[in-house]
Specification:
oxidoreductase activity, 52% helix, Ribonucleotide Reductase, subunit A, 6% strand, TusA-like_sf, Translation Initiation Factor IF3, single chain, mainly alpha, RNR-like, Ferritin-like domain-containing protein, 420 residues, four-stranded mixed beta sheet
């Protein structure tokens, strides 16, 4: 070089080479300068005289030469004026508000670019966290659920927060040691109900699981919540199965009618329809069933298992209701879509007019405390009252979602006799 150009900025690289982190320092400096600016880089690393000119060619900068000095060689380049592909700038300076006790809740991350939940997502963002800047040239993923209205719920972040704070352990949080021998008819009834609950919970686990890989990660909170729902259902299956095996009984009968009902649920391909049938109608009805078993449980273990499961199921119902309100609020035409889905499922279930007799009988035995003829009539009456209460509560939930009284009555009557 005949003369040192006047640099706009200097990089002191010490002994660093291009592969040792020198390029990070250079990029950090050059990115803040306008095109045409000269950058001086001082380093004693011997390979920079070859590596830096090559890098400049790749990045469309102009390498100007070097000057040796007592503390290393100073290399000069002029920042190129070839603009890189246009990309948005990522956030910087974001500081989320913390809650009492230093807690950082998921809802509170809705700041900056993360707060922009797209109405329609694209597969081009792939697995990038919402709010990140995706480089051009990234692959396009084939997620099939990309519309916000198809999965979103206003309360989903809060429900996820509740779910993560409410996990329990079916091995250690249930008082298994408190079990005592029960009369055989009562234990058999408990085991039949545990079998019925477990097979229904398998459906409640597998239905959301089939949708998770289809949902665009831009709706991450929904994916997170569904994963907690799946964890809940796995734990319920574990707890119900353990109760059937813990006290001298065993798993009992799985009715063909129950399997048919659950298959019609598993075969749903639309997320909102599946959520409506599973969480609003099905799990909503199960809240009453779990409360009934809890209230008439012959032992503290059965009562505690059902109580804990009921608390979890109530959260699932809340998500189903929240999503339903959001979905229906986007387009009133969706009301008719859901009515049609209920009718179609009812057509497939036309041959089934009531829940499995084994389940009805088990509920009656539980409510009667056994097979005493003097109390069995009272037990069967309570089961009839339970089924009527299930219908009444379905009507209330459907009305809260915005369905008319006539629509709610029709859909509740057509709901599967299997409860879920």
């Amino acid at each position: 070089m005949t003369a040192d150009p006047e640099p706009a900025a200097r990089v002191e690289g010490g002994p660093l080479g291009v592969a040792d982190g020198l390029l990070m320092l250079i990029r950090e400096t050059a990115d803040a300068l306008p095109a045409g600016s000269v950058v001086a880089v001082r380093t004693s690393h011997p390979t920079v005289e070859h590596d830096l000119p090559a890098w400049c060619r790749i990045m469309s900068h102009s390498y100007l030469g070097s000057v040796a000095g007592p503390d290393g060689v100073v290399y000069f380049f002029r920042k190129g004026d070839v603009s890189p592909p246009a990309v948005a700038k990522p956030d910087w300076g974001v500081r989320a508000p913390l809650r009492s006790g230093g807690e950082f809740h998921t809802r509170d991350w809705l700041i900056g670019r993360v707060a922009d939940v797209p109405e329609r997502a694209t597969g081009a963002t792939g697995f990038a966290p919402r709010g990140a800047v995706v480089e051009p040239g990234s692959p396009v993923y084939d997620f099939t659920i990309n519309d916000r209205a198809a999965v979103w719920a206003a309360e989903v972040a809060d429900l996820y927060e509740q779910a993560t704070a409410s996990q329990w352990d079916a091995s250690r949080d249930i008082p298994w040691g408190d079990l005592r021998p029960l009369p055989e008819p009562v234990e058999r009834a408990v085991c039949q109900l545990m079998t019925f609950l477990a097979e229904n919970e398998y459906s409640a686990l597998y239905v959301p699981a089939k949708f998770v890989p289809r949902i665009n990660p831009q709706f991450a909170e929904v994916v997170f919540f569904l994963c907690t729902q799946m964890a809940d259902e796995a734990r319920h299956i574990e707890a119900f199965t353990k109760r059937a095996l813990a006290n001298g009984g065993g798993l009992q009968y799985a009715a063909a009618s129950t399997q048919l009902s659950l298959k019609t649920l598993f075969d749903q391909h639309d997320f909102t329809v599946a959520s409506f049938l599973l969480s609003v109608l099905g799990e909503g009805t199960f809240l009453d069933l779990l409360r009934f078993i809890e209230d008439h449980a012959p032992d503290p273990v059965t009562a505690e298992v059902c109580r804990r499961a009921r608390v979890d199921e109530a959260r699932h119902v809340k998500f189903g209701m929240a999503h339903l309100r959001y979905y229906l609020g986007e387009d009133p035409a969706h009301f008719e879509e859901l009515r049609t889905a209920v009718r179609r499922r009812a057509e497939v279930m036309a041959s089934v007019t009531e829940v499995s007799p084994r389940v009805q009988e088990a509920l009656a035995v539980l409510a009667a405390g056994g097979l005493d003829p003097a109390r069995l009539g009272e037990g069967t009456r309570k089961v009839r009252e339970l089924i009527a209460e299930m219908h009444s509560h379905r009507l209330k939930r459907l009305a809260q979602a915005g369905f008319t009284e006539i629509q709610a009555e029709e859909m509740s009557r057509l709901h599967t006799p299997n409860f879920m």
